[in-house]
Amino acid sequence: MNKMKLKSMLEQFYNEDLGDGDLSSEVLFSSKDKGIFYLMVKEKGIFCGKDVIEIAFPLLNQSVEVEVLVEDGEKVEEGQLLAKVVGPVRDLLQAERVVLNLIQRMSGIATETNKAVSEVSETGVRICDTRKTTPGLRMLEKYAVRTGGGYNHRNGLYDAVMLKDNHISFAGSILNAVHQVKGSVGHTVKVEVEIESKKQLEDAIESGADIIMFDNCSPGDINEWIKLVPPHIVTEASGGITKESLLDYANTGVQYISLGYLTHSVKALDISARVLM
């Protein structure tokens, strides 16, 4: 993870939350009041967010001391302590919500990814994320997917070519689209083509695509059509795949499955900050 970028992100998040000051903490406590609190997980899952905790608290006050008690990717249980934070009470309270919001979401993504990876562990399929991430949080959400045992699809529009249905419609055909792209991009850039029918699959193979994505195709169709794909072309399934249908898709023989729900509709892991008396 890019820690310099994370620090810049956290500064923006604090500015959003603090505004011109903390009306609650600044009235109740002086700058000299010290305190200790702990971050505690309230349900079992996979923890993710160590860098967030270690960077976020001292960012408000360098005197804050942070001890993270678990590692990213570690399984945690209900009631387990994740971190101990010591410092000025004002700064602890001002940082609390920003930190919790981030590590809850990241841990929720890591937990959900781990479940998907475990579901297909016997098939050899790799579980991937998508670009269906929260604007501004992509770096953190994709890191959380890796923490949960998954793999990242392209990070953005800039690091791979992916020709979707609208690209193909505007270009006129798969053959036209791939021909134009391959004539322009560098030889190190992979070209992925999204297909939804057997005819599109045949066109994608003929075009010289490096990766073929079976999009919104049924497991039955993929089972049949994948026999046509030469071994040098990487295969992927995506679109409408649920937790319940995941294993059916994994058993089709595709090499990758990309899941939007890992980031766009994941449930945050329940984590709180506690002052233990």
Note down, in words, how this protein is organized.
This protein has 277 residues and is of the alpha/beta class. The protein has two domains: 3-117 and 267-274, Aldehyde Oxidoreductase, domain 3, CATH 3.90.1170.20; 120-264, Aldolase class I (TIM Barrel, Alpha-Beta Barrel), CATH 3.20.20. The protein is 41% helix and 19% strand. The chain has eleven helices and twelve strands. It has helices at residues 3-18, 25-28, 50-60, 89-119, 138-147, 165-171, 174-182, 198-207, 219-225, 246-250, 261-264; strands spanning 34-41, 45-46, 65-68, 75-76, 81-88, 126-128, 161-163, 191-195, 211-215, 234-238, 256-258, 271-274. The strands form three sheets. A six-stranded parallel sheet has the order 6-11-10-9-8-7. Strand 9 (211-215), helix 9 and strand 10 form a beta-alpha-beta unit. Helix 1 crosses helix 3 and helix 7 runs parallel beside helix 8 (198-207). The protein is elongated. The two termini are 35 Å apart. 35% of the residues are buried. The mean pLDDT is 96.
List keywords for this structure.
277 residues, alpha/beta, Aldehyde Oxidoreductase, domain 3, TIM Barrel, 2 domains, 6-stranded parallel sheet, 4-stranded antiparallel sheet, 11 helices, 12 strands, 41% helix, 19% strand
CATH class descriptor of the largest domain = Alpha Beta
Query: What is the name of the CATH topology of the largest domain?
Result: TIM Barrel
Rg, alpha carbons: 23 Å
What's the mean pLDDT score?
96
Number of strands: 12
- Indicate the low-confidence ranges by residue numbers: none
Taking the sheet with the most strands, its summary is: 6 strands, parallel
Strand order of the largest sheet: 6-11-10-9-8-7
**Structural class of the helix and strand makeup?**
alpha/beta
**Could you give me the name of the CATH homologous superfamily of the largest domain?**
Aldolase class I
Helical fraction equals: 40-55%
Integer tally of domains: 2
Basic shape: elongated
Number of helices: 11
What's the SSE pattern? HHEEHEEEHEHEHHEHEHEHEHE
